[in-house]
Amino acid sequence: MVKNGRYAGRVSDAIHSSLADIQASITSSHRAESADGTVRAEASAKRQIALELSPAAMRLRPDDLAALILSTQQEAQRQAEAAVAETLDTFRADPRVTDALERLRDTQAAPPPRPTTDAPDADDDVITDVYDKNSSW
Predict the structure, then answer these.
(1) pLDDT at 65 over 90
(2) pTM of the predicted model, to two decimals?
(3) What are the DSSP calls for 21-67, one per residue?
């Protein structure tokens, strides 16, 4: 029994550690830079964090600058999302996680189905007869 407890503890620790890795991956920042170096963007998987424009960026046409900003931000976002996906794939591939999830499913029985109507009570006829003035009682 102690052996199973230690195993469960190790599995639990592994899962918690993996979940911490996932959380760190979600909040970690990733940077992208435009090819000409005029725009730098930083993003996490959840949001854009920073945007830096060089003085040369101010010389670009507004439409070109906007497109460059968007593409650079999207690249930073893609990098962040790819890092989260990789971390999740690693988590899902861990046999300890698979084993823990299977054990959890095995221990959780489905609740019994709820009756759609109440079962008739054996005392229903007596109660009805007592309150029914036309009863033969």
Answers:
(1) yes
(2) 0.61
(3) HHHHHHH--EEEE-TTSSEEEEE-SSSEEEEEE-GGGGGS-HHHHHH
Boundaries of domain holding 50 = 2-93
Looking at residue 7, which CATH number applies to its domain? 3.30.1310.10
Specify if 35 maps to a domain: yes
Kind plus residue range of the DSSP H or E element containing 13: helix 2-27
Domain contains 109: no
Q: What are the pLDDT digits (tens) for 84-101? A: 999 888 888 888 777 777
Q: Residues of 104-130 as b/e, b for ≥16 C-beta within 10 angstroms? A: eeeeeeeeeeeeeeeeeeeeeeeeeee
Give how many domains the chain has, as a whole number: 1
CA 36 to CA 67: how far, in whole Å? 13
135 DSSP assignment: -
